[in-house]
Structures are given as structure tokens and as C-alpha cells.
């Protein structure tokens, strides 16, 4: 999949083609923890990568290194706010938890659906829009043709 993209881009007679040829084949590995991926996406919205990594690291520490529905559910809001989550992002994370736990958003089986269906399911979560859902498709599920 990534080899096809590499071959196409490296064949371009442009600076991009030369850059791709010089860099060689790059492959993206998908995410195995889709919940954690989505939490990181929410946390990182409209932040610098440094700030997002810092806050994400604090959240990961607050849940004992295992970011899951069950671990984040028991962490008090005040603790997560102390990690640097804004009120809006905290609401978004809590909504994601609720959708996974109570509303049938099955992240373990989400890769079985079409791109469109996944986007439709994810945008029902507060704080996840079409762009975030598309980035999830690309970087968590390795679906490179999302923006085509």
C-alpha cells in the first residue's frame, strides 16, 4: 500500500519526487489502541506538538500508563484538568468514554466498516469532526485513500 504511493511520488519530475526518492520508502504503522489514539487526537487539537505531548504524557501518567476506557473512567475530572485538559477537551474525552461504554461505539471492530461509516460514527463524539475522523482512518487504520 505505501509502496504504491512511494512509487507514484518518486516518479514525479519535481522536487517532491526527488525528496521521496532520497528518503526511501516510509511506512506508517497503524494504531493498536484506537481509544488511546482518539484521546490523543482530542488532546492535541489546536495545540503545538510539544504542548500536546506534554499534556498527553500527563494523562498517560494519570491512568497508570494504560490509556483505556476503564482506566480513564476512574480518574477524577479534577485530576485530568490538572494534567492540562481544558474543560471542552475533558467533555470530549468523557463523551468518547460514554459512546464506547454505553452507546455501542465498538473501537475493536471499527475497522470492519467503510470509511464513510467510520467517519459517521466518530463525528457523533463531541470534539471529533470530519478532519479528526479522517486522520484516524489514515494513521490508526492505515487507509491512505481517505482524502482522494
Mean pLDDT: 91
- CA radius of gyration is 17 Å
> Pairing-aware structural class of the strands and helices?
mainly alpha
Are there runs of 5+ residues with pLDDT below 50, and where? none
Query: According to CATH, what is the topology of the largest domain?
Result: Endonuclease III, domain 1
User: How many distinct beta strands?
Assistant: 0
Percentage of residues in DSSP E strands: under 5%
What's the number of domains?
A: 2
Distance N to C terminus: 14 Å
How would the global form be characterised? globular
CATH superfamily of the largest domain: Hypothetical protein, domain 2
Helix content: 55-70%
Helices, by number, come to 9
CATH first level of the largest domain: which class? Mainly Alpha
Main sheet summary: none
The quaternary structure here is single chain
CATH architecture field of the largest domain: Orthogonal Bundle
Element-by-element helix/strand order:
HHHHHHHHH
Structure write-up:
With 148 residues, this protein is mainly α. The protein folds into two domains: 1-30, no CATH class; 34-139, Endonuclease III, domain 1. It contains nine helices and no strands.
Reconstruct the topology from this structure.
Layout: H1 2-10, H2 15-23, H3 34-44, H4 49-62, H5 69-73, H6 77-82, H7 87-101, H8 115-122, H9 130-139
